[in-house]
Amino acid sequence: MTTPEHLDVVIVGAGLSGVGAAYRLRTECPGKSVAILEARDTMGGTWDLFRYPGIRSDSDMFTLGYPFKPWREAKSIADGPSILTYIRDTAAQFGIDRLVRYRTKVVAADFSTGTARWTLTLSERDDDGAVTERTITCGFLYSCAGYYDYDQGHDPVLPGIDSFRGEVVRPQFWPDDLDYAGKRVVVVGSGATAVTLVPAMAETAAHVTMLQRSPTWIGVVPGRDKLADKVRELLPAGAAHRLIRTKNILFGLAFYQFCRRWPTAARKVLTKLSTKALADPDTVREHFTPTYDPWDQRLCAIPDADLFRALKRGRASVVTDHIDTFTPGGVRLRSGRELHADVVVTATGLRLLAFGGITPSVDGRRVELSEQFIWRGAMITGLPNFAVCVGYTNASWTLRADLTSRLVCRVVDHMDRHGYASVVPTPDRPLTRRPLLDLASGYIQRAIDAFPRQGDRGPWRVRQNYVLDAVSTLRGDLSRQLVGTSRAVITGAPADAGRAWSG
Fold first, then answer.
1. One domain, residues 337 and 356
2. Is the Cβ–Cβ distance between 332 and 324 less than 8 Å?
3. Are 208 and 340 in contact (CB under 8 A)?
């Protein structure tokens, strides 16, 4: 019987997070064998999969980019193809591309407490499309597959959609051959995807209408950071990147805290900025003033006010209403108004999916994720030698992703230095259960109960504060945490079952 291949660390997902994780493991744990398993044919994750018009970052690239790879392009809010090139260039520069195994999907993962190893069942697809299964083992499993279902989006009931004679398109599966030039387009939705699509499609469509049930908070941001441009003229690339990154982190954190602590004032600020950009107070009042407070849901950024510019030029419009039914020629609303359309784009959101669809088990028994707690936003009770990458909801995903990858490196190094074969977070006293992601957004509320929970204190809380997280993740002396009382315990096994690492 052939012994399965064994690796020290397996990373699931070759997107922005997975490439960053591999870089950290290669540089901070250089003796470890590492592989990235990617179910698709190419690298890039979200930035390769999503190809709808205008796709772009909703965070500045100085924080969405890697801290070890300065962003050199002119635009601070970058388009999808530029981000994809950046990821692939990073992978090639540091040899990470050689670690990726494409067309390899993890279909099962079981941890053995006896051997302190994960056994991964892989589904591998060859160039001809033939699929085979095999198993490998690893000492540590790190999921960098995000928390979206990339195979299926959220499909709400759209009454009468089958009667519509035009073309219905989902942004997640944008057809390469779609021709909407000179056609009437209705985009159903009001989130980040919708506000990106509308101005992009309005460049060539006859008219684009954004149909929303309720308004979303919009943040007008500059496409280029003029201060960053000046800093890059004066300083070397590395120093400039660090300075700009720090500036943007602090500004973003300060604005988030402002919104959460003084929501009434934040509403006034955002409304004033939108009114200034659109120059139409009535439209702002009707279509861009939500009932919820800023950052109850994630803000939608529009660089250089492109959505508002499309509205002012008459190339696009916004309608706030509910769908009564689709008709052969468009959409009839509850108000009785009908929107004529040749193309309907259903930008109705994504579905959440924990760990890329992997259902982990321990000693053959499935671990119910909804019953577990997450420690330092990364490791999960009941799952030894396992971490998951979950980015910030109030800032760039990569900020927390990079912290989590560096934490994984510290954990792996700590296990080696103390002779631990496995580690698992365990609270020292009962925790109050809270949702993992504290946002009111529909796509989160629909599926968050299937995810691990956060606690009510210390390292069991998933904070939205990069500065505090950086201190606790990178500066904490783990050797000093081996004694005393604290809020988390990571137990070594089987090398020294009598010692505990308190976090």
1. no
2. yes
3. no
The rounded Cα 242 to chain-centroid distance in angstroms is 22
Q: Judge whether residue 315 has pLDDT over 90.
A: yes
Residues 151-201 have pLDDT tens digits of 776 677 889 999 999 999 999 899 999 999 999 999 999 889 999 999 999
Q: Are residues 394 and 484 in the same domain?
A: yes
In sequence order, the 6+-apart residues with CB closer than 8 A to the CB of 87 are: 15, 16, 19, 43, 44, 45, 47
For residues 33 and 342, give the distance between their C-alpha atoms in angstroms, rounded to a whole number: 53
Q: What tens digit of pLDDT does each residue of 101-152 get?
A: 999 999 999 999 999 999 999 999 998 889 999 999 999 999 998 776 677 7
Q: Which pair of tokens denotes residue 424?
A: 């698992």
Judgement on whether residues 186 and 317 belong to the same structural domain of the protein: yes
Indicate the residue among 292, 315, 346 that finishes a domain.
346
**What is the enclosing helix (H) or strand (E) of 333?**
strand 330-333
pTM confidence score: 0.90
Question: Beta partners for 29?
Answer: none
CATH number of the CATH domain containing 49 = 3.50.50.60
Whether the predicted pLDDT of 485 surpasses 70: no
* Residues 192 and 302 both lie in one domain: yes
CA-nearest of 194, 143, 142 to 170 is 194
Query: DSSP H helical segments within 385-493, as ranges?
Result: 397-418, 442-445, 466-470
Same domain, yes or no, for 265 and 289? Answer: yes
Determine the Cα–Cα distance for residues 484 and 428; give it in Å rounded to an integer: 12
> 229-236, long-range: CB within 8 Å, 24+ apart, which pairs?
229/74
Euclidean distance between CA atoms 35 and 16, whole angstroms: 15
What is the β-pairing status of strands 34-37 and 5-12? Answer: parallel
Distance CA 423, CA 140 (A): 10
